[in-house]
Design brief:
The chain has a 3-stranded antiparallel beta sheet, covered by helices on one side. It is built from 13 helices and 3 strands, in the order ααααβββααααααααα. The chain has 294 residues and is mainly alpha-helical. Helix 7 crosses helix 10. Helices cover 64% and strands 7% of the residues.
């Protein structure tokens, strides 16, 4: 295919007396511009009922990284490397926790800038590992748009832990921390049961697309109320220790750690944003202990 195309290209250069070293030339003798590439890929996207552009997949890739909890520095470096591997001469990427902007430049296609907003984020380390492996494969081996899109869709469709496995995790975490902080057997059982109920409540709240701080507030109030109700009904002894077990489900430990790492690595704006989000979430979670007892 390469030899055949180069033969046709050399023929077009001689036919139209072109003085260029560019690789892509149209049959009419006109050089292929950035707009031509955009028009072609956009037309191909319509065939599969999708609105795509040459930079859609790169931005989608970065969006998936942010959505699954990747640190900002890694996202910026990954997008920059993919753009340079794809033929860009310069790539400038800026990202925070909820927004990413990338500008690339190349003599063949000019300059292009796109911005993406990230609404919801989770911590899915398995998908992060898969996306990191895919980024290395793109840079080292090269992949077509179709191949990249299929791989991204495959990764996004992968199922993590089942819902009932997560329910069991919530029960174990709540019960274990309750015992760790001095609760007895009855407190542990009640804390584990409340942890299960909080998992169901969190799942329901996530479907409503409400603000995550509001979700944490509702879960905190519900957990504290149930802990006090259990003590009032004499089925448990220590509401505070039960609540401590449940509050560990809401403490933003990973977010706080990432905020410090971002600031130490030079991403001050992102680090401060993560830090303030962590402090606000911790303050909201504190109502788990105080609000129901007022």
């Amino acid at each position: 295919i390469r030899d055949r195309y180069m033969t046709e290209r050399d023929f077009l250069v001689k036919k139209y007396n072109l003085n260029t070293k560019l690789l892509l030339i149209q049959n009419s003798g006109r050089l292929i511009t950035r707009q031509d590439v955009y028009t072609f890929i956009h037309a191909q996207g319509k065939l599969i009922h999708k609105n795509i552009s040459p930079h859609t997949l790169r931005h989608s890739f970065a969006t998936h990284l942010l959505e699954n909890g990747a640190e900002v520095g890694r996202v910026e470096d990954t997008v920059r490397r993919i753009c340079l591997a794809g033929g860009a001469e310069r790539a400038d990427v800026f990202s925070i926790t909820s927004n990413m902007s990338a500008s690339i430049y190349g003599k063949e296609f000019g300059s292009c800038t796109q911005t993406r907003r990230v609404v919801n984020t989770v911590n899915d380390f398995h998908k992060l590992e898969e996306l990191n492996c895919l980024s290395r494969k793109i840079c080292e081996d090269g992949m077509t748009f179709g191949e990249i899109e299929r791989e991204i869709e495959r990764i996004q469709k992968e199922q993590g832990y089942s819902f009932w496995w997560l329910v069991l995790d919530y029960a174990l975490i709540s019960g274990s921390f309750c015992i760790f902080f001095g609760g007895n057997a009855k407190d542990m059982v009640i804390s584990a049961l409340i942890g299960v109920l909080l998992k169901f409540l969190m799942t329901f709240m996530q479907k409503t697309a409400a603000n995550h701080l509001f979700n944490a507030l509702i879960c905190s109030v519900a957990g504290g109320f149930l802990a006090n109700l259990a003590v009032f009904a004499s089925v448990a002894d220590h509401a505070d220790r039960i609540s401590i077990g449940n509050i560990m489900l809401l403490i933003p430990g990973i977010a706080f750690t990432n905020s410090l790492r971002d600031m130490f690595s030079g991403d001050t704006i992102t680090g401060l944003i993560r830090f303030m989000e962590s402090i606000l979430l911790a303050a909201v979670s504190y109502t788990h202990l105080t609000l129901p007892t007022i």
